[in-house]
Amino acid sequence: MGSEDLAKRRRNERIARFSKEQKIRAETWLIVCEGTKTEPKYFTSLLDFVNTLTDREIKFKVVGSGRNTESLVNSVDDLFDFTNNEISKKKIRYGKTFVVFDKDDFTKSAFNNAVNMCLRKGYISLWSNECIELWFLLHFDYLESAITRKEYFEKLTRKLKTEYKKNADNFLLLGKLDKIPKAYKYAKKLEENLNCEAQPADRKPCTMLHKIIDEIEEYLGIKIK
Length: 225
Prior knowledge:
By secondary structure, this protein is an alpha/beta fold.
């Protein structure tokens, strides 16, 4: 084989590899979480579980940005810089991109800015005000009172009958199918009962985690809520 033929073959192989990766990335969901343990563990557990319900599979990548709340208060852009870098590593967009973050100690303006930035960039924001533990608690009970993170932990401890700790594995049971419909119904009720015209930072308690259930059902063509 001549040098020109060899170069042509290698070029065609590179194109084929790139095209294959384009297809994989286009079918893959990217979920970027503010935290590095609790949120990634939950979404990995949830998507692994729903993938057992049908022959069709959601390909996904869950990453934790490791950006702590304090640094995000100073620069919301940190989270989106991390997300943008994940997306642009090989200049191929993912099929869907979700960004998961809590109100916590964000300033109101920083939190609202993060939600609006998702809209501008075409990302699906899965925000919670005050924290993701609201979504976990809704698997058990409806809650419309604004409470502290400590109170969320205490309530979850009672429901789980074991101490709820951040980054522990004991919450993974919340990804089970029998509890998802209740959490979805309660999250939607909160969303509808609160002033939809208000800024996200003023909607408390509220969570948008139920949006991923809508996306899962549409993509897999199944009913889980």
